Amino acid sequence: MAQGNGLDMDIQFLPGVGPKRAALLKKELAVGTIGELLRLYPFRYIDKSSFVRIAEARPDMAYIQIRAMVMRVDVIEKKRLSVWVSDGSGEMELVFFKGVKWMYEKLKPGLEFIFFGKPAAFNGRINMVHPEVDAAPTDGNAAGAGTAGMAGAGGRMAAAGAGATMTGVYTSTEKLKTGGVTGKVMNKLMEAALNKGLPFVEESMPEDLMRQYGLVPLHFALRNIHFPKDMISLEKARYRLKFEELFYLQLSLLKQKYIRSRSEQGIPMPRVGEAFNRCYESLPFPLTGAQKRVITEIRGDMKSGRQMNRLLQGDVGSGKTMVAVLTALIAVGNGCQACIMAPTEVLAQQHYKNIQKFLAPTGVRSALLTGSSKTSERREVHQGLEDGSIGIIVGTHALIEDNVVFRNLGLAIIDEQHRFGVEQRSKLWKKASYGAPPHVLVMTATPIPRTLAMTLYGDLDVSVIDELPPGRKPVQTIHATEGKRPALYRFMREQIALGRQIFVVYPLINETEKLDYQSLEAGAEDIMNKFPYPDYTTAVVHGKQLNDVKKFNMDAFAAGRADILVATSVIEVGVDVPNASVMVIESAERFGLSQLHQLRGRVGRGSEKSYCVLMTGHKLSKESRHRIELMCATENGFELAEEDMKMRGPGDLEGTQQSGLPISLNIASLAKDGIILNTARECADAVLREDPTLTSDRNQLLRKELRKEKYQIKDYSKIS
User: How far apart, in whole angstroms, are the C-alpha atoms of residue 413 and residue 329?
Assistant: First the structure.
């Protein structure tokens, strides 16, 4: 294998690595070159600038550093080394299980050393197992003690980390530790990588932007992120590296948006049309201010002559379907067809049912196309789409099949976009018949924190419906444990006696999880015993049922023929039963915040007071308890989504498929760095306003950086 030069050099050629460790680092941390190693940042730091007296050491301390003299050394059964040390305030035992012979020869009684490790309690005394050992400086100056001396790093190590009093702690795994890549070894490797690689690192931010935003040079940042001279240097390094990461992410997304807004011709839709006016005038309730604002934004896009690419965010029940219908009618009023694509048959049927009510006064023909549509229905729908007699089609991925041909598709509305693959959506765009792509409206009921929306959908224009329609009453959320089950069943009987219906939802975290199905079956059996037929009717819905069975049971509940629906979270999106006033969520601690919020949104859709009961076990982790408390405290989906992201990190948010993050972030956090993200976005926006294609000489560096593979972001909104 070629050694390579500078940053591309294979890490196996670094001192102390070799082929075996290199393969391990590649597999466990995806680090194969010096450049990649330098961009592996510590996730926390240990401060080695201060010392703790032995008398003050406690087992609850994280890591401590002591300066002490060796009093006696004992080898026990050739397997364990016991070293007793004293600093004048007290004595402490240090225990070593590895390198016993080597340590025995070095740690001579009467010599002074610096020991660094985790204090623990054993037999009523404080000890440390396998502390790091460094020679104590002879001049009494402790600074730098952690990076020289017995660590064996020698002069090379002192060059990059000289003066650093804090040591970085890097992500590790059991396999790395077993393979000898300990924290101390990682520090040595990073020292060697800085010495070898730093001369080849080129500045990636233009000087004028560095001055304007107070950014330190990249060399300074990389040196101080790994071996901080002090806290101020560390903060400057962090800010610089986070800013750079978020700036280039936003620059790549916004550049697509700028180029498209200048070059992508859209189908001009200057009219509102008669059908829109008829629908608007016969609405059973007035639109909220938020709905009106969003429709105005959409209208502006559709008549601009440019292709609309807009994300519509709205909490559960905020009236997105109404906006979708009026948007579709604008397309129809301009002689085009519109399609509304939903991720599940249940949601597609729900949309179709709602839409038909709104379309009744307009005379516009609509149709439904899903995987379970009968052959005769399909034939009729295909014909209507081809001859243009169907104005609005609602469907699932069945809409993208090759034999579905539109006469003049002008608008594609995609609901819950994260559930559709890129390839699936691209097929829809190819059905455009105008030579111009259809306008695109992406809708989501999963509240996405603003920082995440800017990153997942940074190249889309974003509209938010942040107001609930009048008449919607807040849902009262209650936390209950197993002991309260008799009271819960009494409450359910009272609600049913008032003519209400009830959801009971079980977690199904894994489709193949037998235990989940067993708990659902046991729960359904218990409910049927406590709510016996014919006084009560219970319907059961889960993913393993045939579609016909699922539909029959769901329809029975929706039509009011069943009092209770026992289901898995399959009902999270799309079931609209205004008469359902109680949502019982079993094992609520197993759901994420966003999912709990989505489930709660299934009730409170009618005019009656509604309730959400979160059933959990008695023992809850701190995080689970916090989630349950938040659910009881607020109904604001955006607040909950922000909290969810802080607790779980953006990589694990329910419903926002984080594999969709355009690039991987090495140091910035969408949960914590919202302020830096906003500043970086404003900076990127200002650069592109002046030079949308980055062709000017002053932006040469930005152009070069964006060509790097990690910034080659797929355009998720327009795939042609």
Answer: 12
Q: How confident is the model at residue 391 (pLDDT cuts 50, 70, 90)?
A: very high
The terminus-to-terminus CA distance of the chain in angstroms comes to 40
CA–CA dist 446, 318 (Å, integer): 12
Cβ-proximal residues to 402 (8 Å cutoff; 6+ apart), any chain? none
pLDDT at 671: 66
pLDDT at 719 over 60: no
Go through the chain and tell me how many residues it has.
720
Whole-prediction pTM value?
0.61
How much is the average pLDDT of 64-68? 91
What distance in Å separates the CA atoms of residue 668 and residue 455, rounded to the nearest whole number? Answer: 12
What's the Cα-to-Cα distance from 666 to each of 29, 42, 140, 204, 669, rounded to whole Å? 12, 10, 39, 16, 9
Cα 405 to chain center, whole Å? 36
Query: Beta-carbon neighbour count of residue 286 at 10 Å?
Result: 10
Distance from C-alpha of 355 to C-alpha of 367, rounded to nearest angstrom: 10
Phi, psi at residue 366, to the nearest 5°?
Answer: -125, 165
Helix count and strand count (H, E) for the chain: 24, 22
**What is the token pair recorded at 670?**
């969408």
Least confident of 123-132, 447-456, 591-600, 689-698: 447-456
The position carrying tokens 């009523």 is 124
Residues 508-553 have pLDDT tens digits of 644 455 556 677 788 888 999 999 988 999 998 877 777 788 888 8
- The predicted pLDDT at position 150 comes to 36
**DSSP secondary structure letter of residue 7:** G
Residue 359 CA neighbour count, 13 Å, CB half? 25
Write the DSSP string, 654-710: TTS-GGG-SS--SS--TTT-HHHHHHHHHHHHHHHHH-TT--SGGGHHHHHHHTSGG
Q: Which structure tokens are listed for 52?
A: 């703790």
**CA atoms in the 13 A half-sphere facing the CB of 493:** 12
Integer-rounded Cα radius of gyration of the chain: 32
Please state whether the peptide bond connecting residue 534 to the residue before it is cis, i.e. omega within 30 degrees of 0. Answer: yes
Share of the chain above pLDDT 70, in %: 83
Do 246 and 215 meet the contact criterion of CB atoms below 8 Å apart? no
Mean pLDDT of the chain: 82
Read off the tokens for 442: 């992406």
- E strand spans, 102-239: 112-117, 119-122, 125-129, 132-135, 166-169
Residue 61 φ/ψ, nearest 5 degrees: -75, 150
Phi, psi of 642 (to 5 degrees): -60, -45
Neighbours of 276 (CB within 10 A): 24
- Model pLDDT for residues 640-658, shown as the tens digit of each residue: 777 776 666 554 443 333 3
- What's residue 348's pLDDT? 87
Nearest to 468 by CA among 352, 584, 329, 322: 322
319 touches 408 (CB < 8 A): no
Secondary structure (DSSP) of 340-354 = EE-SSHHHHHHHHHH
Rounded distance between C-alpha atoms, residue 698 and residue 171, angstroms: 38
Taking the C-alpha atoms of residue 182 and residue 647, their distance in angstroms, rounded to an integer, is 28
Helix or strand (DSSP H, E) at 45: strand 44-47
Tell me the C-alpha to C-alpha distance, in Å, between residue 296 and each of 180, 303, 347, 468.
Answer: 62, 11, 26, 18
With 60 as the cut, is the pLDDT of residue 222 above it? yes
